[in-house]
Design a protein that fits this description.
By secondary structure, this protein is α+β, with helices and mostly antiparallel strands. It is about 40% helix and about 25% strand. The relative contact order is 0.29.
């Protein structure tokens, strides 16, 4: 089974990382052919999640930088590196992301994310520009 939620160790590492400004989450998404509920395709289930999570992100001062379809694999092997969509979501801090991820509201909508995703990768990123200026 592919992971859809962060494991406890990865979440602890994110929570204990230095709070040094914004964090951008790179989301690589592979949708199920049919959502777990069977009533819609996986992409539709995930899109429902996206419509509900966007106001939560924005309420914390975050924003969806970019979201689009992954159309062609240029480097890599098909299969585990084959993705349907990519999203970049910026949060003002790791703390803000964790606050959202642990919220009751997230618990109420997360089922659509899980129902629609076959697999995913979520990478916490921070700007390299600041490092290059030191």
């Amino acid at each position: 089974m592919n992971a859809i939620r962060p494991n406890a160790e990865a979440f602890r590492e994110l929570a204990s990382a230095p709070e040094d400004g914004p964090v951008v989450m790179l989301n690589l998404l592979k949708f199920k052919e049919r959502a777990d509920s069977g009533d819609v395709i996986g992409r539709d289930s995930y899109d429902r999640y996206g419509r509900n999570v966007r106001p939560m992100v924005e309420a914390l001062g975050g924003r969806i930088i970019w979201h689009g379809r992954a159309e062609q694999l240029l480097i890599g092997e098909a299969g585990e590196q084959d993705w349907d969509a990519v999203a970049l979501v910026e949060y003002p801090s790791r703390k803000a992301f964790i606050e959202m991820a642990m919220s009751k509201q997230m618990g109420e909508i997360h089922h659509d994310r899980e129902a629609g995703l076959e697999r995913t990768v979520l990478l916490a990123c921070r700007p390299a520009l600041e490092e290059n200026q030191r």
